[in-house]
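Hi P.,

Sorry for the delay on this. The queue was packed all week, but I finally got your sequence through. Input first:
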Amino acid sequence: MAEKFQNKYRMQSNRMPQWDYSGNGVYFITIVTQNRVCNLGHINNGKMIFSEFGKIINDEWLKSFEIRNELFLDEYIIMPNHLHAIVVLDNTQTTNNGSHDRNVGLHGRVNLHYPNYPFQQPVEQPKFIRKPKSISSFIAGFKSVINTKIDDYIDEHNLNIPKYNRKNHFFQSNYYDHIIRNESEYHRIKEYIINNPIKWENNKLNSTNKTTKS
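Then the structure:
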């Protein structure tokens, strides 16, 4: 992992309109359900137990990386009302046949045998234009698929709950991303993701946490 961070990171902000989000990089991503509803499952003895919706999200999340050669999934966790993940974006490394030679590990995770990932300079980019093969286009596509898959499940099981569409999203329209700057930050974030279930009681996204500010 260390060789990824040899080039100095020069951005001052975690998220800026001028940043080229289609550029290669290692990203920490968080996606939260609408209104922070805990409909993905529950925590039992420090372990995440999926609901049926949670199973759909997990399956579609893993499928998203199977069909995208430019993305690699590292550590991730699905919690009762949110998802954390470390995602590597690489638009350059391909094999002779045009596809990535991906070394897939257990549980759909890809082993961290990647080449250098230079963190690019910020570039001017027109506002409101989502670039293809970027983090933003990936997240938008994933959310759209989830709306459809959850609606299909609602129909198949005749559930008496509202369906999801452009005005009623399953996930919040915004998402959080952070460009990982160095190896120590990578390990800190990875540990945070792994330990999320055992620290759920005090998590700021846990609506039952009395210290959480709405």
